[in-house]
């Protein structure tokens, strides 16, 4: 199935996705509560920027973290393919290095975004950027869209190359382990490619809306503009799909892995190959149906 480093990165993605969803839900609940409480006093509905500093930092950090995960997964997939022997010897160190970068990069970006922010004004909701940081916010948002799409295209190309490589190995190599490793790399590349593309579609599609609205801000009604900034958050959809994709791809990989092991088992009579494949198949079975007491 997934390698150790890939598994850790996927787990970190799910955990931060849950944290981000909890923060987003809390922010929206506060906005709904104030809208109901101050229904007859609309001027009191808005939040002071100073009261949203902490929530805003956590919201944007977890938001950017989930985007940087896509880059980490892509680099992890490349390393698993092209420096496989070395990478398998340091899977946890590699994964933890990626996670440290996923934590540091958003903080560095936010430090620049909020470098000239003033917290004396009001915002409609706490995930809205403070005064004077709007331009930096939209610049980062637009840049992230382009980077995500570049990573998505690169992951598609990598999956295609893995597909071609696996087909070539089947025709050129007789070694069973080489064939099986190429097949596992292909399945992993497909799963990572699908996760990255879903993230790019959800984030890129909805993130483009605030950026477009900001360009044509003049003729757009104020209520529409602020409502879009507050609720056009593609990360909500991306975080919803990630666990589903991981579950689907894991089950698919297990089934394909077992069928390929059985096929390779029938293709060779060598005892060592049979013994190795049998161990792989038993390992796959135990991961799929763990023993319970």
From TrEMBL:
Keyword set includes Transferase: no
PANTHER family, per database record: SERPENTINE RECEPTOR CLASS ALPHA-28-RELATED, SERPENTINE RECEPTOR, CLASS A (ALPHA)-RELATED-RELATED
GO biological process: sensory perception of chemical stimulus
Membrane topology annotation: Multi-pass membrane protein
InterPro entries the record matches: 7TM_GPCR_serpentine_rcpt_Sra (IPR000344)
Residue ranges of the TM segments: 57-83, 95-114, 145-163, 191-216, 222-248
Keyword vocabulary terms for this entry: Membrane, Transmembrane, Transmembrane helix
Organism phylogeny: Eukaryota, Metazoa, Ecdysozoa, Nematoda, Chromadorea
Cellular localisation: Membrane
GO cellular component, one term: membrane
Superkingdom of origin: Eukaryota
GO molecular function list: G protein-coupled receptor activity
Name of the protein in question: G-protein coupled receptors family 1 profile domain-containing protein
Family: Belongs to the nematode receptor-like protein sra family.
């Amino acid at each position: 199935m997934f390698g150790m480093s890939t598994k850790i990165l996927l787990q970190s993605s799910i955990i931060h996705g849950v944290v981000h969803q909890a923060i987003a839900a809390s922010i929206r609940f506060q906005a709904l509560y104030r809208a109901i409480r101050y229904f007859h006093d609309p001027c009191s509905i808005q939040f002071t920027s100073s009261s949203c500093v902490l929530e805003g930092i956590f919201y944007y950090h977890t938001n950017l973290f989930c985007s940087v995960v896509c880059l980490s997964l892509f680099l992890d997939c490349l390393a698993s393919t092209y420096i496989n022997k070395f990478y398998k010897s340091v899977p946890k160190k590699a994964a933890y290095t990626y996670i440290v970068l996923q934590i540091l990069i958003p903080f560095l970006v936010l430090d620049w975004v909020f470098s000239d922010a003033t917290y004396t004004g009001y915002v409609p909701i706490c995930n809205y950027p403070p005064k004077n940081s709007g331009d930096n916010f939209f610049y980062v948002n637009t840049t992230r869209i382009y980077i995500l799409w570049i990573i998505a295209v690169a992951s598609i190309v990598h999956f295609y190359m893995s597909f071609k490589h696996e087909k070539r190995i089947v025709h050129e190599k007789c070694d069973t382990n080489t064939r099986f490793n190429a097949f596992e790399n292909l399945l992993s590349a497909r799963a990572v490619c699908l996760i990255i593309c879903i993230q790019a579609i959800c984030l890129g599609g909805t993130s483009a809306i605030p950026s477009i609205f900001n360009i044509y801000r003049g003729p757009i009604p104020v209520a529409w503009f602020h409502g879009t900034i507050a609720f056009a958050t593609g990360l909500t959809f991306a975080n919803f799909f990630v666990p589903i994709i991981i579950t689907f791809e894991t089950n698919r990989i297990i089934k394909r892995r077992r069928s390929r092991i059985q096929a390779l088992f029938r293709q060779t009579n060598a005892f060592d190959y049979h013994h190795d494949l049998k161990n792989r198949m038993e390992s796959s079975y135990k991961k799929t149906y763990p023993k319970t007491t």
